[in-house]
Amino acid sequence: MEHMNPTTALFPLDITADALNARLCKGEPVQIVDVRSGGEFAGGRIAGAKLLPLPELAARQQELDRETPVVCVCQGGHRSACARDQLLQLGRTDVASMTGGMNAWARAGLPVEKDDGAPWALERQVRVAAGSLVLLGVGLGWFVHPLFFGLSAFVGVGLVFAGVTDWCGMGLLLAHAPWNRRA
User: Fold this and answer.
1) Looking at the structure, do residues 89 and 149 belong to the same domain, yes or no?
2) Domain count, the chain
3) Is 99 found in the same domain as 129?
4) Bridge-partner residues for 45, per DSSP?
5) 91 neighbors 97 (Cβ within 8 angstroms)
6) Domain contains 141
């Protein structure tokens, strides 16, 4: 269901993947702004999407056509909602966030473009890094000193925090890793 923007009855604040796809199939003019990192964008995006990472959005918003509505997209919907709100505060009235992000787009079976040699998805990188740190903490705690078990506990607390708040510090760090930067 679309929640309509009060300043323009024709464009919603939130839009589903299916509703966005329907607009695109009808040939309606829409700018898709992907606010994820370059690595995430390379790993899978909606055809025709423009990469404007969230930290750069305000500085680069002049790159957007003022006459064409904007739909912000991220991986799960949180960053795109932040981007939408940021653009609304900067004076745009025709901007929406795609609920559920690229996860919802993929679940709907809609087409995804991907660069050859793209890095793993950020979620997968976080799982590998967190699992590796837990194993390291257990191994060091068992063979070196019991205080190293604290590393595993720290990672566990971080994962619970990420799940509850939908904010992942490890994901943000990995997004800035050299292999996740789009050339």
Assistant:
1) no
2) 2
3) no
4) 113
5) no
6) yes
164 and 132 in a common domain: yes
- State the burial class of residue 76 (Cβ atoms within 10 Å of its Cβ: 0-12, 13-18, 19+): middle
Reference 101, options 15, 28, 43, 22; nearest CA is 15
- Chunked mean pLDDT (size 10), the chain, 183 residues: 47 92 96 92 94 95 96 94 96 95 96 87 88 97 97 95 89 85 63
Amino acid identity of 65? D
Catalytic machinery residues: 74
The number of C-alpha atoms within 13 Å of 117 and in the hemisphere containing its C-beta is: 4
Q: How far is CA 59 from the centre of its chain?
A: 19
Are residues 84 and 22 both part of a single domain? yes
- Domain containing 146 equals 122-180
Residues 86, 132 within the same domain: no
DSSP state of 145: -
Provide the Cα torsion 174, 180, 181, 182; round to 10°. Answer: -150
Q: Note the pTM of the prediction, 2 decimals.
A: 0.73
80 and 29 within one domain:
yes
